[in-house]
Amino acid sequence: MGEPGGERLMREQAGWRRATFLELLFDLVFVFALNQLSLRLIHDLGAGSQQWFGEVVETFLLFLAFWVLWLSTVAVTSRRSPESLVIQTVVFMSMAGAVVMSVAVPQGFEQRALLFAGAYVATRISRVLLLLVFRLPVVSTPALLSLAVSAVLWIVGALVHGEGFRAVLWTLALVIGYIGFTRHFQRLAGAPIAGEHMAERLQQFYLITLGEAGFVSGKAFSGSNLGTPHAVGFGLAFVAIVLLWRVYFYRAGTVLPVAITGARNPARQSVAVAGTHLLMIAGVFLTGVGFELYITEPLGRPEPKWLIAILGGPALFLAGRSLFELQVFSRISRSRLAGLLALGLLIPATWYLPPLAAGGAAAAVLAGIAGSDAWRARGRAPELPAPGI
User: Fold this and answer.
1) Against a cut of 0.90, is the pTM above it?
2) Class assignment of domain 194-389?
3) Of 18, 152, 308, 335, whose CB has the highest number of CB atoms within 10 Å?
């Protein structure tokens, strides 16, 4: 989410269109964050608690807070020089905040709620103050107001008793923050932005999430007795990761930089593709949790709630990927829609089957989509982007 102001483009040199080493270092902090979130969600789905659905929702609210922090940092660095000491300080402050938030994740909705919310709010506000001190931004009153209101909701939510009320306040805080971000970017219609840099940063976060899914599956297999069912589950997870990479990058993911820079309104297009990337990244994150579940208990008794991760993760990814394709090419492939339908039909079909069966079915759907892409690409010239924005 963009901080208030920051309209002047200072990221102009050709070399600045690529992510810097500092930005890549910043991303590594989110490997830790995603791992902490994965462990929390695995516990939510694996525990026998009757409140498991609420716990899953709470974990996703924490996930969204990390996404807001990451994207807001990218929005700043996509407009300003990465060699500026002030911008580098902003990145380091964001790293520090993300580390503290990650430490708080295991009890981020319970005993460590104030630590999590405090780190998030302190990071967002301190960055704005730093930019104001150095007179970098053109102050946007609506953006400042939305940031202040959401900050109050975060802190009040952390102090109240009752996780349900806390979830309501934090959800409202996230909504207000996101609305402030989108309106801020709409006000910047026509303002320049390093589109190639924004595209690369979104792609890199997607790859980080894929890597985290691989880490979770490898850790789960290593912790098993290395029996045949566990090995099959690990193999399915590896194949699914390759397919998630393939389906994402087939054309739409590859031409994303051109789709942003060639749009009529690059800033608005950046906001739109960031939203669809959130869906895809959340889908991959969920899918990785599903990997751990069916690798650990491949032939265990059916756990219908696990289908939220095993089938729901790929479905959420495909939903985001379909909308992403619409943003880049102004059309949606039938294979994506067929894949979504197939995953929906698999829910009742796998309800009473072992977790490994659901994992294999999800991988088969992704393989069918990748195969359809390869078939359509035969003898055809690469499709050019046609963004509608």
Assistant:
1) yes
2) mainly alpha
3) 308
